[in-house]
Amino acid sequence: MCIQPPIRFKRRPWSASMGTMAMCVAAAVGTYGMGQGPVETPTQAVVLDQVVAVVNNQAILASDVDEEIRLAVLDPGRGGIGALTRKRALQQLISRALIQQQIRQEDVQAADPSQEDIAARLAEMRKELPACVRQNCASDEGWKAFLGAHGLTPARVDTYLRYRMQILRFIEQRFRQGIRISPQEIEAYYHDTLLPQYAAGEITPALDKVAPRIEEILLQQQVNALFDDWLRNLRRQGDVEVLDPALETPQNQGGTGEGGA
């Protein structure tokens, strides 16, 4: 596997090269504007965005963090755990950037979902996502209202779903192959984890009825463990810099941390 240079979690003040990158972009747009030749620039530069982190030379902007927070409404796993913080959102973006860079390096074509797959996932989400059900996203009017209420667009949701499906497929292809769950492990989970969840006197399912679901749970646990170790290794061997002190977390000061995909 091709891995990026050693990771260096750094803390440093805004520099002229990175902290004002957006100023340079704004100045360039203001000076040349859409191929119409030089135009008059304002006397005071306006910062349109800020670079808050760099992952192997890939910039993450403050606007990316804001958008990640808006997109969190589409994540079914966030139900009941509160709003996504800016620090956590940045960690998710860092992890996603590392994974996507690795996918490109390994040229995993099979991980790329088709437009039909994305459309099917979107239709499923509009019908089943709790936040969508409450706003009747299954209807076109309800979906449009939902997007407007959360500052999203159909194109951005499409891109978000593509990234998530691509990463999930990559994880499945890379880490699930070769994992085998023994009958003994299934039986142990059934007796030690599943049955204690039932109150005395409740009817419990037979082992043979729930064995496939238990096997799936145990498979996913092993996949998650392998993936977490792999991601921590990527973070150690990559080059990640958080440039905004307000978004620093302990993992940026020497640890590995976790990041959602």
Describe this structure in words.
This protein is mainly alpha-helical and 261 residues long. The N terminus and C terminus are likely disordered. The chain has one domain: Orthogonal Bundle (Triger factor/SurA peptide-binding fold). A hairpin with a 2-residue loop joins strand 1 and strand 2. The longest helix is centred in the C-terminal third of the chain and has 31 residues. It has a three-stranded antiparallel sheet with strand order 2-1-3. 53% of the residues lie in helices and 5% in strands.
* Tally of separate domains: 1
Low-confidence stretches: 1-41, 253-261
Structural class label: mainly alpha
The CATH H-level superfamily is Porin chaperone SurA, peptide-binding domain
Order of helices and strands: HEEHHHHHHHHE
Q: What is the overall silhouette?
A: globular
CA-based gyration radius? 23 Å
Named CATH architecture: Orthogonal Bundle
How many helical stretches? 9
Helix content: 40-55%
Question: Distance N terminus to C terminus?
Answer: 20 Å
- Just give the CATH class: Mainly Alpha
Tell me the total number of β-strands: 3
Describe the largest sheet: 3 strands, antiparallel
What is the fold named in CATH at topology level?
A: Triger factor/SurA peptide-binding fold
Mean of the pLDDT scores? 78
Strand content: under 5%
| Strand line-up in the sheet with most strands | 2-1-3
